[in-house]
Amino acid sequence: MNIKKFSNGKYLVDLKGLVCPYPVLFTKRALEKLKSGEILEIVIDNPPSLDTVPEAVKASGHEIVEVIEMEPSVWKISVRKR
Amino acid sequence: MESDVFEKYNNVGVNPLELACGCAVKVDLYDVVYPAIGELRNKFRGSGLEFSPRNDAEIVRAKEIIEIHRRIYALGDKANVDPEDVRRIDPVTCVALFQVFQQYANDHSRFMKLVEPVYSEIVESGVRFRFGKGHSIITTSPYESIAIFDFISLKGRDLDKFLVVNNDTINIIDPTAGIDDRRQVIGAICNALNDLFVLGVCDEIQIAPLIGFSESDVRKNILEHAKEFIKENNFRLLEVPQYNSSRLFLGATVLGTSEKQPPVRGEFVEAGMKVIVTRSFGELSPITVYVSSIINDEIRSEVERFGISLDELKKEKDRAVGLISSPNLKAAKVINKYLPKIGERFKEEHIPLASDISGPGIYIFAEMAEKANASIEIDEIPLLSPEISEYANRTFLMTNSTAGTNGAFCLITPDSICDDVIDDLKKVGYSPHIIGSVKGKGEAKVKMPKELLKYVRNINHPILEVND
């Protein structure tokens, strides 16, 4: 898993191709590396993860900024670390 | 650490994190597959291609000679069915595996764009036959959307027995075991056999392995394990072509015969009957949590804080894999004993309805209530590793931690034979539980105990209620 910094305080982790439960696991691991207030954008293409990743993130107290479908069945979930 | 564990996969160019554990690999049934089948049924009504009702396995009257013909077709606008070939085969029924690129797998209209052309070309053959059972899995490769059709043709005179056919595949069972691990291969075949065994079908078992993988040494090892298992159990191997997939799948098309009537008769379920499970279930939780704890140190620490050591977790994982790789043949023989012969009526000494719990987990009780149009109350949920299942659900690793692979059977059994069925299952090594009963007929409804909320997130079934 590679976290890419693409602007000040914004990071991207590309989890396309991974199936459950790995998107949840790697999202948690990526968020551990960020500072409070920084943004993590998670790209996924595994439909069940569209439910589990936001739920897991919210349960850990982080904020979902937005969820957008970038192309058919590819989603970007933006999260602000608490 | 994960790179060591997954070395065997990485060496053959496979990322195990792209492979779902157990039955999680399937295309969503309720939102995608069933609506698509409904459309196909309407479109091809009167064409000669008939779609079987929704069953776990295809059931037809057997004849003297049973033949299987495997064909591999591209999907979508590249569909390449030869109608003349289908005419030559002259099938009575078929089972099919669809491997679908995941961008087409979460929307039924997109799914239809891929699968409909294959059916249209088959219909061009003009052969009247039944589409028995389909099984759809997801691939992350846009170039490997395919259908594998196993056409079944029957010749000779009619026999006084049923032929039951099923197909099933998985990606992997235990990502920490080798890609061609013997238990993984056997588990995948047992998972396909389970839908035969739950119907009490245990005679003349024939197995056509269904293995997708391009690396030849690994594929050879997988086939060798499959052949050994088939020989050890006195089953018959059916030699069929395999598919060179870059993404691993393991499974089989399986056939068997029975002189008894299958327990698919919801209309004979009555109030007062008991709900029996042949053993505890939820095999996938310990595997998922163990793999997660290897990948993520934080998960490992959290699991330990939850009171489960890594050693205990590994033991539970190994126990689950052991169960998954053990065929439920002995349970099939017990079920068979309590079924009526062809031509006889279902009476109070018979089991009218049985289902494989595997993939759906607790949702199977809702399916059975619907088949029986009955109200069922479940009093307990016997899980293999309840604490681990609770952890898996609480931490979003699994949304339904009661799910499994090659799982337990659920039997709806008249009260008068309940003790005998339980004794017979115990004698052959099972740990059956009576977990509930049928409360009435006329309305499909299931009441579940509140503890279910520890294991299943977002319970979403119109007839399933949780007790206060």
| Fraction of residues in helix of chain B | 25-40%
Q: Report, as a whole number of angstroms, the end-to-end distance of chain A.
A: 22 Å
The percent range for helix content of chain A is 25-40%
Structure class of chain A? alpha+beta
Largest interface: A-B, 25 and 30 residues
**Poorly predicted regions of chain B:** none
Intertermini distance of chain B: 44 Å
In terms of per-residue confidence, which ranges of chain A show pLDDT below 50 for 5 or more consecutive residues?
Answer: none
Overall number of strands of chain B: 15
Q: Helical stretch count of chain A?
A: 2
- Tally the helices of chain B: what do you get? 14
Strand order of the largest sheet of chain A: 1-2-3-5-4
Radius of gyration of chain A: 11 Å
Structural write-up:
The complex is a heterodimer of chains A (82) and B (468). By secondary structure, chain A is α+β, with helices and mostly antiparallel strands. Chain A has two helices and five strands. Chain A has helices at 22-32, 49-59, and strands spanning 3-7, 10-14, 39-44, 63-71, 74-80. Chain A has a five-stranded mixed sheet, with helices on one face. Chain A is globular and about 30 Å long. Chain B has 468 residues and is α/β, with parallel strands linked by helices. In chain B, the strands form two sheets. In chain B, strands 1, 2, 3, 4, 5, 6, 7 and 8 form an eight-stranded mixed sheet that branches. A seven-stranded mixed sheet of chain B has the order 10-12-9-13-11-14-15. In chain B, helix 6 packs across helix 10, helix 8 packs across helix 10 and helix 8 (284-295) crosses helix 13. The longest helix of chain B has 17 residues, at 216-232. The N and C termini of chain B lie far apart (44 Å). The mean pLDDT of chain B is 92.
